[in-house]
Design brief:
The complex is a heterodimer of chains A (393) and B (259).
Chain A: E1 3-7, H1 11-19, E2 24-28, H2 43-55, E3 59-64, H3 76-86, E4 90-93, H4 96-104, E5 110-113, H5 122-130, E6 135-137, H6 144-154, E7 157-164, H7 176-181, E8 198-200, E9 203-206, E10 212-214, H8 219-224, E11 229-232, H9 239-257, H10 263-277, E12 281-282, E13 308-316, E14 321-326, E15 330-331, E16 335-340, E17 343-349, E18 353-354, E19 360-361, E20 363-364, E21 370-374, E22 384-387
Parallel strand pairs in A: 1-2, 1-11, 2-3, 3-4, 4-5, 5-6, 6-7, 7-11, 10-12
Antiparallel strand pairs in A: 7-10, 8-9, 13-14, 13-22, 14-21, 15-20, 16-17, 16-22, 18-19
Helix pairs in contact in A: 1-2, 1-9, 5-6, 9-10
Chain B: E1 5-9, H1 16-21, E2 25-30, E3 50-53, H2 59-70, E4 76-79, H3 83-87, E5 94-98, H4 106-112, E6 118-120, H5 127-136, E7 141-154, H6 158-166, E8 173-178, E9 181-188, E10 191-201, E11 211-217, H7 223-230, E12 239-240
Parallel strand pairs in B: 1-2, 1-11, 2-3, 3-4, 4-5, 5-6, 7-11, 10-12
Antiparallel strand pairs in B: 7-10, 8-9, 9-10
Helix pairs in contact in B: 4-5
Classes of the chains: A alpha/beta (393), B alpha/beta (259).
Chain lengths: 393, 259
């Protein structure tokens, strides 16, 4: 089975990720994770997430992937035992001491090796495999040939990133943040210095930010060469981002597996993904070494959009009224789109908006205000409403 | 006190005869096609002491390396990529891990020491952390003593891309700054390293316990400067302590760690 693995920083995102087609999610707990400043989940929430996932026949992986200093070990043993008791499906680790500790405690926890360990060859993969690691998240720098070779020589489960932000550096091989800000990149405090401008005397600034990763053109090939899990980056991303990206890749994978994907659909999916991320995205190391075209030269001035207009809270099939929580401004006369996992995306022209008392209003202007729209096509809870940017294919 | 050896990366060809004359110095040669961030690399046939491999390797690289090492006369191998461990298992040379940024606690160091003879200590930890790590290490370690810190290692051709995007003449080395922090970018066909411009120097290095040797990475220094550094004369060298006296943090609220 090919796994679509979604990021999540909180319970709401986990539920959205599963709803939109993820087979598994990964997140950090409140300690030991490389997103120290995300909300992350406490043990109680991890238990809820795990039960929720298992009830759907899906999986959860917990990142325990910091590079430990000696002072960081306090509480690790109890934490790992708690994760094992909860029944999470795996932890994602990068530090050999975590891998060994799981073994020494004989915990029923599968260990996946984080991309932080930068595995790029079979020798390194075998090293970790012998230590009991069941899956390796390869370095994002791995090429198609590297992946084929590692898979062939080790047979180990391979997980590859297919979408999202990229580090400029090999993961784990960067302490720019430590140097510039004192924030420890390998313990979850990365200040993303690779997205800053480096000044060069008498010359333009040096910019080293990569475009985001986007593997849409190669998903079929990645399935064919035996990659087991397709990972989306973005534990701190919004539910709109998660829903959009997961749905695109879910449909892409399913259509590839049923041999029904068209080139027009691929083009459409690429448009949707690029718009959603606010940044250009492209394949990076899979088919070539990245060049000048795979970098991003806008510095920190990223474009933002207000495409995400609302989320469906309820739909009444009798009255055809959809209860919607507003996320961005929309008004009567706008043409929008509704998308969700269980129906095709469709256009909708807003002819009337009703407030919570079902009184007509012209504009939904306040974040999280509740409004009603009358929509003939059936919707479901957690379907989303966005600005119409592209024609539906 | 026992006089410990200094492992000095050969970053200046002129200095080789002088280094050979020093009793307490061992030479570390960047191995041709297997390094990043060095002005000179040496073919395996020219290396009669330690060879350095500091880049991450693919299976093709490992295959090539296996052939190269079979004909070598090296005394030791310093490497970063864990894929090399199996390759050199039966080779009768000293094996030293250079865990760039990934060896910051004694537990991990001790696990890795099951596979190698020694490990070069991290420059990412404080003096106090370093002392503790050395005390707890089950084998003597090699103290990262002096040199430019590789702050980042990218597989990307960052300077080629910069010159192309801005229509500038390509240079393999570029000095840059962010506010008061200075960087030196260095590109070769295998990627780009970002070094500090100042030289890390470990204060009171001779006082640390459980040390096998001292590691020097004097990139960009002249012959005379390197010889002065080896005599502990750093008057004309722009040094800094990096994170020796500054604990890094990772929780933003209140700037406090969760430990």
């Amino acid at each position: 089975m090919i796994e679509l693995l979604a990021p999540a920083g909180r319970l709401e995102n986990i539920k959205i990720a599963f709803h939109y087609g993820a087979d598994a999610v990964y997140f950090g707990g409140q300690r030991f994770s490389l997103r120290a400043n995300a909300k992350n989940l406490n043990l109680e929430e991890i238990a809820v997430a795990t039960d929720y996932a298992h009830a759907l026949g899906k999986k959860v992986y917990v990142a325990v992937n910091i590079v430990f200093h000696d002072s960081d070990f306090d509480g690790l043993e109890d934490y790992l035992k708690s994760l094992a008791n909860i029944g999470v499906d795996a932890i994602i680790a990068s530090d050999i001491s975590v891998v060994k500790l799981v073994q020494e405690l004989a915990l029923p926890l599968e260990v996946h090796l984080s991309t932080q360990a930068s595995v790029l060859n079979s020798g390194s993969a075998k090293f970790w495999q012998k230590l009991g690691v069941k899956r390796i998240v390869l370095a994002r720098e791995a090429s198609r040939e590297d992946i084929i070779s590692i898979k062939k020589n080790t047979g180990i489960d391979i997980e590859c990133f297919i979408h999202g932000a990229m580090c400029t550096s090999f993961s784990g091989k960067c302490v720019l943040s430590n140097y510039v800000t004192g924030r420890d990149a390998n313990r979850g405090g990365c200040a993303q210095i690779c997205r800053w401008n480096f000044q060069v005397p008498d010359n333009p600034d040096l910019l080293i930010t990569p475009k985001d990763l986007n593997m849409v053109p190669f998903i079929k090939d990645m399935i064919d060469i035996g990659i087991n899990s397709f990972k989306i980056e973005g534990r701190m991303r919004s539910i709109y981002y998660i829903a959009t990206v997961i749905l695109v890749y879910r449909r892409l994978i399913d259509k590839i597996l049923t041999n029904s994907l068209t080139s027009r659909e691929v083009e459409y999916y690429l448009n949707i993904l690029n718009r959603c991320a606010n940044r250009d995205s492209t394949p990076q190391f899979y088919d070539k070494l990245p060049s000048v075209d795979e970098q991003y030269y806008l510095g920190r001035e990223e474009l933002s959009n207000q495409d995400f207009l609302g989320i469906v809270l309820e739909y009444d099939a009798k009255t055809h009224l959809a209860k919607i929580e507003q996320r961005n401004y929309f008004k009567v006369g706008d043409t929008v789109q509704f998308f969700g996992p269980n129906h095709e995306t469709f256009d909708y022209e807003i002819k009337a908006i009703y407030d919570e008392d079902l009184k007509p209003i012209d504009v939904a202007r306040h974040p999280q205000m509740i409004v009603y729209l009358k929509i003939d096509k059936a919707l479901e809870k957690d379907d989303m409403m966005r600005l119409k940017i592209f024609e539906i294919i | 006190m026992e006089r410990k050896e200094k492992l000095v990366v050969v970053t200046n060809k002129e200095i080789i005869p002088d280094l050979r004359d020093l009793n307490d110095v061992r030479l570390v040669y960047p191995l041709e096609s297997f390094c990043i961030g060095y002005p000179y690399e040496f073919s395996i046939t020219k290396i009669d002491d330690y060879a350095l491999i500091n880049r991450l390797l693919t299976d093709q690289d490992l295959k090539k390396l296996k052939k190269i090492l079979a004909q070598s006369k090296i005394k030791g191998l310093i490497f970063d990529d864990l894929g090399i461990i199996e390759l050199v298992k039966d080779l009768d040379v000293e094996k030293i891990l250079l865990l760039n940024h990934l060896g910051n606690n004694y537990r991990s160091i001790n696990y890795y020491l099951d596979y190698v003879d020694s490990i070069i200590t991290s420059s990412d930890i404080t003096i106090m952390e370093l002392n503790y790590l050395l005390e707890m290490s089950k084998k003597p370690l090699i103290l990262n003593t002096f040199g430019l810190i590789p702050l980042m290692y990218s597989r990307r051709a960052l300077l080629t891309n910069y010159s192309k995007h801005n229509n500038l003449k390509y240079a393999e080395v570029l000095d840059t700054t962010i506010n008061d922090k200075e960087f030196k970018f260095w590109e070769n066909p295998y990627g780009t390293v970002v070094y500090t411009q100042k030289y890390y120097f470990l204060e009171n290095y001779a006082d640390f316990p459980n040390v096998l040797a001292y590691y020097y990475n004097p990139v960009f220094l002249s012959k005379d400067e390197i010889l002065n550094v080896l005599k502990d004369n750093l008057d004309k060298i722009n040094t800094f302590d990096f994170l020796q006296n500054e604990k890094t943090y990772f929780k933003l609220k209140g700037g406090e760690n969760n430990d």
